[in-house]
């Protein structure tokens, strides 16, 4: 038991150091550099070196007690900054997935609605072009058929907007929503109701893969949180701008890739293990499809008792 607790505390310390302290220490370093150099001498390395050397010779940091206090202050500040970045990351994640965008405040909701409508028009046009090329492939004369790369390019243009017809203001949100749309269309299942029950029958290795994919999505959003923290530093030190922009680009790309992986795993898990859930529910064995999905949903909906409120 002692060995288990020791190993657990070691892993927790490693995660604390990696996720909070090191990124926070880097942020504090940038803050200190920006506060020292300001806009007028933003890239003056010599001045920064001189200030650091003077600070290192100060009596307060040459004693053991002073060094301990300084180290504790840096660790505490770095950890607090890391927690702030994670909190902002949760906001970035909510915006990126946009699950409840209809309930956003008026101005943001209005802008999101217009953006969704614009994305739908673009997707409809791209999809119409793709369908037209598919029809032309059946032309009797080879000269009337489009080149293969034209159809692939049209499909890629459509998928860059959204995998299914857009219903949310972001690509990542639509990618996860597309999983629910496909499963409803192909198997007549409601993913929101189905998932908690299916999770309990999934094999441990699959749950681990889904958990890791979800953690990757969260880490990508936290990078966006760090970008939000770096951006205000540009007020007195302009090199913070390229740092923030770089983090925004990396966060956006990782959010897109992570949401795609997460959505793919969700859909694959349902398609592969819906029959396992049906077996647990004592539903007669049948192939994956609308009849099986409908039977599972009727059983799950019927298992939830709806009672009248007490008078």
Q: How many domains comprise the coordinates?
A: 3
N→C terminal distance: 52 Å
Q: Give the SSE string.
A: HHHHHHHHHHH
Task: Please describe the biggest sheet, giving its number of strands, its sense, and whether it closes into a barrel.
Answer: none
Measured as a percent range, the helix fraction is over 70%
Shape: extended
Q: Mean pLDDT, nearest integer? A: 84
Number of E-type strands: 0
- From the alpha carbons, calculate the radius of gyration and give it in angstroms: 27 Å
The low-confidence runs, each spanning 5 or more residues with pLDDT under 50, are 304-311
Structure in a nutshell:
This protein folds into three domains: 16-83, no CATH class; 98-169; 170-299. 77% of the residues lie in helices and 0% in strands.
Structure report:
α1 (2-37) crosses α4 and α7 (171-187) packs parallel to α10. With 311 residues, this protein is mainly alpha-helical. The protein has three domains: 16-83, no CATH class; 98-169; 170-299. It has helices spanning 2-37, 45-56, 59-62, 64-97, 106-136, 148-161, 171-187, 191-199, 204-230, 240-280, 290-302. The relative contact order is 0.10. The chain crosses the membrane at residues 16-37, 68-89, 95-112, 217-238.
Fold blueprint:
Layout: H1 2-37, H2 45-56, H3 59-62, H4 64-97, H5 106-136, H6 148-161, H7 171-187, H8 191-199, H9 204-230, H10 240-280, H11 290-302
Task: Name some characteristics of this structure.
311 residues; mainly alpha; extended
